[in-house]
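Thread: Modeling a multi-component assembly for a lab meeting

Hi all, long-time lurker, first post. My supervisor asked me to bring a structural picture of a complex we are working on to next week's group meeting, and I have zero experience with this. I have the sequence lines for every component (449 residues in total). Could someone generate the structure of the whole assembly? Inputs are pasted exactly as I received them:
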Amino acid sequence: MKNRWLAAVLAAVLLCSAPAYAEGPEETDGGHFTGEVLPDETDGTGDPKISYDQLMPRDYVIVKDALTTEEPLGLPAGGRVDDSYFDDAVFIGDSVSEKLNMYVAKVRKTGGPVLGKANFLTAVSFGSRNALKPVSSGSLHPAYNGKKMLLEDAIAAMGAKKIYIMFGMNDVQVSGIEKSLENMKELLRRIHKKNPDAIFFIESATPRCGSGNPTTKDLFCYDLALYEMCAELGEGVYFVDVAYALRDAKGDLYKDCCADTGSMALHLNEKGCKVWLEYLYTHTLPEEMLQRSK
Amino acid sequence: MKKTAAALLMALLLILLAACGSAPAKNVDLPALMAKLPLAQEDRDEMMELDAADLMTYYGIAEADVKQFAALMHTSGIDCDEIVLIEAADSAAAGRVKTALEARLEIKKNEMRDYLPDEYAVIAKCGVRQDGTLVAMIVSPDEKEISGAYQEGIR
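Re: Modeling a multi-component assembly
Sure thing. I ran the full set together rather than chain by chain. Output:
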């Protein structure tokens, strides 16, 4: 097991030819970002509770000659949750998530329900880099009820507790992987400070099925490093490997899930959204972990 | 005497002309007008009809400020097409609605400026217009044609 993990890490480093994020876990004044892995506890009956390590194992295997892993990273597959699970969720992202936003809105109008009462904070060309900038007339911050505001303020205003974030597409090409992860960590810190009860669900950046910047390889390397970052941050930060469900055998976006194969080759169509939604419903945090996080 | 009468008649004429220019036609049915706007069916099929709750979600427009409305938004996530027609409850509400739609237009411009320049070019040519208590934001590559039909429809 240990040799397998070391081999996986070595393969990731050689493949990506770039260091993963530089720093270790960052401490905050809250309880979540200590970087410590909680020890297994029992529930008094002698039966072990689920540990963070079980949900976020540190070993993974990269498929040979492909930009994907053998198994999805982060939260494992479980039963399909009820829509109400997402009532206190918010989905944050860029144009890729904007499509999910529009698709969910459309489905809700024609019958729904879908993702419960989850909110969306999405904006085209958004990312962790510009999320850290102050709000201005020219900033890209998404509006909440028509008003542009910082993400941490919008989350507080809507009272969201499950924070899903998918960034990367507009960060990696501008800042590189290391800086993008620094920005993400800082963003999580700011959100956590204003919303100490929030739980983070960091989604992997989805691939593309054509050329462009960032490349699918850039995004895959970013996803691996993002997963490592989440695992080091510890309880309260979970990884949801949406990208895994949308990668073909080589690691590219499934063409039949892509809305713009002839141009940017990265935005999803409705089929892609359905795949994404199914993944979200089946890769969730067990109830006992949700309770522990409160 | 004659000069006084002429001046009074001129003033009356000016008042009448001003009233005709600013007051929109009464009893405009905005949903019916939206249905008649020259949008290609394939574009309509890709657009989502917004409801009253969406006016708050996407624009920050309160239901109380709206007498009637019709609104369509493209669902691709990256196409800029968006048509919002609102009859506000009163002139003060119309001012708030106009401000809200102008803010929305700025957001769309900011998003597309560097990311999708072709979409930005479309948005940059569009604006928000107010005719009395009627406020409209028409964002479309066919904005000129659609706006023309809208203005005909509210006369």
